[in-house]
Amino acid sequence: MEHAYLTGGLPVLDRGADDLYRATFDKLEVRHERFYREYPWAQQRIREVCAHLDQSDERLPTGERLSSRRLRTIGIELGRGEGFHALAYLFEEPFHRVGGEKVLRTDFLADVGSRVSFAGGPLYAAIHESIYGGVGAQAVTGWSAHRIREEMPGFEEAADPRSAEPFYLTGEHIFPWQFEEDPALVPLRDAAFDLAQHPFGSSLYGSDPATALAQAPVSAAAVYLDDIFVPFEFSMDTATTYCDLRTWVTNAHQHDGIRHDGAGIFEQLRNLVESH
């Protein structure tokens, strides 16, 4: 291999899943506050919808009841380039009245249903946390995001949208109850629970990934400053383990930058590789 190009940050090598998720929740809180500053009305609307779901039986097009905790997973949009606008558009007018009763619009439920379903990629949910198995000497991931959220004010599963306390959507986090609420994940429930308790003897990246990266060819990586999926600080720590890695640090893109300007990002990285 002559060169390697990485376009979504760099994975953490020396800290376990628990530390990783603490960092991602922290990053997500910052993005949340920026979103609320850009769309000041959105916070109350999100709270209103979640409080309604806690008290009402609203059904997705696939037939199952939509819970507020499942709706909150659409916060993953905050880590995408157009995510602020997508969420604002979604929550602009979620309710209408039927027979004098306030209910969620069918188009809102259809949109949310497409965002919270893993029908298009069930394995993503099932093996997501396992990529951190054995990293940082944490052998068992143990539903890390599910546990760590309870330490983070506003992200707790039972956070009350009607209170004056912080209340946030969640991000790229997988929770055990999704394998009971999402029809696409129900068949994978047992396997996912087994994997969450599996003790990894070493990282899936290898027993000594830093040594392997020290022998890697000249490489270049796009590292996004505000990335809520791959924390900036962890990416930069990993970058130091490479023999020769040239980083392009930018806040012009979110984690999905490659989808928005793949050619431009590749040109930046190619220029870095060819500059020496």
Question: Can you lay out the helices and strands and say which pair or pack?
Answer:
Elements: E1 4-6, H1 17-38, H2 42-55, H3 68-71, H4 83-90, E2 95-98, E3 101-104, H5 106-116, H6 122-127, H7 144-148, H8 178-181, H9 189-196, H10 209-214, E4 219-224, H11 232-239, E5 245-250, H12 257-274
Parallel strand pairs: 1-4, 4-5
Antiparallel strand pairs: 2-3
Q: What does this entry look like structurally?
A:
The protein is mostly helical and about 280 residues long. It is about 40% helix and about 10% strand. The chain has twelve helices and five strands. The protein has helices at about 15-40, 40-55, 70, 85-90, 105-115, 120-125, 145-150, 180, 190-195, 210-215, 230-240, 255-275; strands spanning about 5, 95-100, 100-105, 220-225, 245-250. The strands form two sheets. A three-stranded parallel sheet has the order 1-4-5, with helices on both faces. The protein starts with a strand and ends with a helix. The model has no long low-confidence stretch (mean pLDDT about 95).
